[in-house]
Every structure is written in structure tokens, then in C-alpha cells.
Amino acid sequence: MKALLCKTLGLPDTLLLDEVPEPKPGPGQVLLEMRAAGVNFPDALLIQGKYQAKPALPFTPGSELAGVVLAVGAGVHNVKPGQRVMASCQMGAFAEQVLVDARQVLPMPDGLGFDVAAAFTLAFGTSYHALKGRANLKAGETLLVLGASGGVGLAAVQIGKALGARVIAAASSADKLALCQSNGADALINYHSEDLRTRLKELTDGKGPDVIYDPVGGHYAEPAFRSIAWGGRYLVVGFANGEIPVLPLNLPLLKGASIVGVFWGEFVKHQLPDFIQDLSAMFGLLSQGKLRPHISKSYPLAQGAQALQDLLERKVTGKVIITNGDVRAESVSDAAAGVVEAETTQAGDAAAVTLADTIQPADLASWVGRELGVSSWITLDQARIDAFAQCTQDQQWIHVDVPRAALESPFGGTIAHAFLSLSMIPVTMYELLVDRLRVQAVLNYGLDKTRFMAPVRSGQRVRNHIKVVALQNKGAGRWLLTTENTFEIEDQDKPALVAMTLGYLIE
Ligand SMILES: NC(=O)c1ccc[n+]([C@@H]2O[C@H](COP(=O)([O-])OP(=O)(O)OC[C@H]3O[C@@H](n4cnc5c(N)ncnc54)[C@H](OP(=O)(O)O)[C@@H]3O)[C@@H](O)[C@H]2O)c1
């Protein structure tokens, strides 16, 4: 198989496309066929020996990718061959085949192309961690993003807007600023031709930005910091300019401000559950269309060195990727991917879905915003309705008096109690989650935003469509799962009810 090799440290033109032996997955490893790999500034630093990590030569750069699982090593249960996945790795992604740690592989959300999946995790993960986790950016605050048209910069613009901030984008050209504006920036500064401090004063009525996101460093850092608002947070993200700025320490004192370091790779290593929580929130924003990775250019693997060269020459905007084959969303079928195979049956209350595999609670992060599955049909017959009436002592005639309801009810017979349908949620949850997830229990403990939309007549069948809304890691093997439950009534468009539930998964 072919790989881009760094045999001597230097600029991208020293990289060589070479034939290397096909890797074999060891225990806990997954072998992927790379379809798209994200290109990031640290890749360009790594091959020059200018990054924190200094791998032994020769090595293949590239730290994130999306592709298809070719093989898994012993003990790997979270993915299987044929599945479409996205993954992070320290290096090695700029190759036809890539070995990764199974813990860093996630199934790709439905409808996502390999291109977007490969360009998402590092840039958006860094900016989300920086703005939400490190700066605690709040709605209504003002955010300044330097290098705002770059990979992490444009992600910060979109995330800042999604978090409700007013975003000022700063970049070096009119074209780059136009891109920032079309990605939601409220105000623009050309720091090449305009004075940063003067413009910041004008744009913030002299108050200054509350949060500054700086992936550039160099000579912009000090004027930016001098402009920061009282109690501001200055995020040190990177030094694309090449120069590590030095700030006088009286500045944070005078502004009551904080200088906050951001190191996403180490954050993932030290705080994996928090990263998974971030990912879950980001997939939610992605599915709502609030995040839209901008891929400005794709380079085939053979031209991978050019991608890094263009990055270093400030020629790229948003994200660029290296591709290997087809990157479209539907290039591998969901059936082959083994995600969920829906197979409805008309006979009795038999299972309506075939769940292809067991998954870990953490994997649910990639299901945020989409349907996890549909339960079996449940018949709400008169015996069930009568039992519920007895239990709750709700003996209203519309539920239990069959002869009277046949004559007087507008529904032509008795109807099930709305709360009877609602109380079917746990049984459907157990069917779809406990049997499938590697958990001991699902505890339903909360209900939110319930709407009863249509009556269920005695003898009708209902089934639950469960959508994952959010996943939160509560530590010690406990996960807080929010789901939206839609109870479909057989042969009817309008559902019986839609309800949000909160549940604990216990590993
Ligand atoms: N802390 C972390 O965890 C973390 C994670 C990922 C990336 N990073 C760092 O963040 C920085 C940006 O990464 P990225 O992937 O977003 O890179 P990128 O897409 O190339 O963006 C960098 C931006 O910096 C500006 N820039 C200013 N001087 C530059 C120069 N001499 N060369 C190149 N760009 C220059 C450019 O915008 P203008 O032309 O508009 O000035 C460019 O859009 C890098 O330093 C990277 O190492 C840090």
C-alpha cells in the first residue's frame, strides 16, 4: 500500500509517496481504508521537527481520517469490518491504509460524507474545547477570533455563533473575511490593513472583547490582549505566524483577565469522557445545521505534500483534505456498515428491528440527532386498557365501557389512556438499549416536554421511534441519556405522543 513518508525533517516537498508493507491490526487496534484525511497545521510542524511530539524517522504524518474498517484486532467490539468510521491518531493518516487505536474510532453519523467526517474532529474539537471548556464563553459575550478563516478559526466562528456570542472575525484579506461573514461573523477586521486596537475599540464601544481566540500568535497577540475586556479570557491556541509572543504580566493584572492554554490532544488523552461529551454536543449542533465544516479543497494522496505547502503559504481557507477513492456520503451502504437494519413485520408483536451489533454507551455520541431505532409493535388491546384502569383507578367510560363507547364515543369505541401509551416507553427502551448496549441497566427517571397528539383506539398497535438527543458522561460508568420518543400508531400519520425522557445508563 502507498503512504506519504517523512524520511528527513523539512518542508512538505521532502515528503515522498512510497510503497510500504500492509499493516496488520494487533490487539485493540483497527485497520482502516482511508477515504479522506484532514490536513492540520500541526502536521506541517511535525514534518519540520517543530512540533511538541518528535516521532522517529521515517514516519507518515496525518492525525485524523474517515474511512472503512478493513479488519479489527483481538478484543475490539466497538466497530466491525465494512463499517464507515471516523478516527483520530497521532500520525499515519496520509496513507491508503491506517492502523488506529480502537478507542479512537467512532461510527460515522448517518448522512455524513467521508470528507466532512475527516475534517471535523480536530478543528471543531479544539475550538469547542477552547470556547466552551476553557473560556466558558456565554451567550451575549463578544468573541474575537484571530486567523478566523483558517481551520480552527472558522470552526471557532461557527461555534461562537452557536453558543450565542457576538463574533468579530479578524483575517488578512477581504476574501478571507467574506468567508468568515458567510459563516456567521457579525463584524470583520482586516488585521493586515487596519489597526487591530482601533477597530476593536470601535466595534465594542471601547469595552473590548470578552474572549479572544488566538491560533496565530506573533505580533497580533499583544495589541489584542491590550484590547481585552475586564475579566476577559485570552485563549492561547497556536502560533501559525511562527513567533511565540511574549506578554508583560502586568496586562492580565490590569484587566483582571486570564491567559488560558488550550491543548486539545492532551485534553482528549487526560479527559476522554469530557471529550466524548463535547463530541456529542457537536454532533447535535452538526445535525441542526449550526456547524457546517467548510472544505475548500481536496488533494489526492499523491499530491498530499502540496496540501501542506498551501497551508504553510496561507493559501487555504477552512479545511483541506487528502482523499483516497470515493468520499461521498452514501458510498458504503448502512447495511454493510451494520448500523441499524430496519425490518418491519406485520405478524403479531414480533421484533420490528434487527439490531446488528452491541455498542458501548460512549458510541451513542455519534447517534446524537438521529434515530437509534424503532421498537416492536405493541397492541393496546382492551385487556391491557382494563388492567391499566384498574391499576390507576381511572375507570372513565371512554376507556372501559365497551358497549357505551361503541354507541357514544366519537372514536367508535374505547380508547387507551394517554398515560398507558406513555408508560410503554421503558419497555421499548429496554428492547432497544439494554439488549444492545454493553450496560447493566437503563434507569428512566425523567420526563420532559410531553405532547399527546392523537388517541389510540382499543386494539390499535403502537411502536416507539427513539431518537438520541444528548449524551452526558456522569463518571463512574454512568451516562445521562436524553431521548425523544415518538409513538407511531399503525396506519396513521399523526403519532400518539412525542415525549422526551432522561435516563441513566449504568455500565
Ligand atoms: N492548541 C491546540 O490544541 C491546537 C489544535 C489544532 C491546531 N492548533 C494550532 O492552531 C494554529 C492554526 O491551525 P489550523 O489548522 O487552523 O491552520 P490554518 O488553517 O493554516 O490557519 C492558520 C491561520 O493563521 C493565519 N496565519 C498568520 N500567519 C500565518 C503564517 N505565517 N502561516 C500560516 N498561517 C498564518 C492565517 O490566516 P490569515 O492569512 O488570515 O492571517 C491562517 O488562516 C496552528 O498553530 C496549529 O498548530 C492548536
What features would you describe in this structure?
It is a single chain. By secondary structure, the protein is α/β, with parallel strands linked by helices. The chain folds into 3 domains: 131 residues, Quinone Oxidoreductase, Chain A, domain 1 (Alpha-Beta Complex); 144 residues, 3-Layer(aba) Sandwich (Rossmann fold); 169 residues, Thiol Ester Dehydrase, Chain A, CATH 3.10.129.10. The protein has 16 helices and 23 strands. The strands form 5 sheets. Strands 3, 4, 5, 6, 7, 14 and 15 form a 7-stranded mixed β-sheet that branches. The protein has a 6-stranded parallel β-sheet with strand order 10-9-8-11-12-13, sandwiched between helices. Strands 18, 19, 20, 21, 22 and 23 form a 6-stranded antiparallel β-sheet that branches. α7 links the parallel β12 and β13. α8 packs across α9. The longest helix is centred in the first third of the chain and has 21 residues. The protein is globular. It starts with a strand and ends with a strand. About 6% of the residues have low confidence.
Q: What's the helix and strand layout?
A:
Layout: E1 2-5, E2 16-19, E3 29-39, H1 41-46, E4 64-72, E5 84-88, E6 97-101, E7 105-107, H2 114-134, E8 142-145, H3 151-162, E9 166-171, H4 174-182, E10 187-190, H5 196-203, E11 211-214, H6 221-226, E12 233-236, H7 250-255, E13 258-261, H8 264-270, H9 272-287, E14 295-300, H10 304-312, E15 319-323, H11 334-337, E16 340-342, E17 353-355, E18 371-374, E19 378-379, H12 382-392, H13 397-400, H14 402-408, H15 418-422, H16 425-434, E20 441-452, E21 461-475, E22 478-489, E23 497-506
Helix pairs in contact: 2-3, 2-9, 8-9
The site of NADP nicotinamide-adenine-dinucleotide phosphate has 31 residues, from α1, α2, α3, α8 and α10.
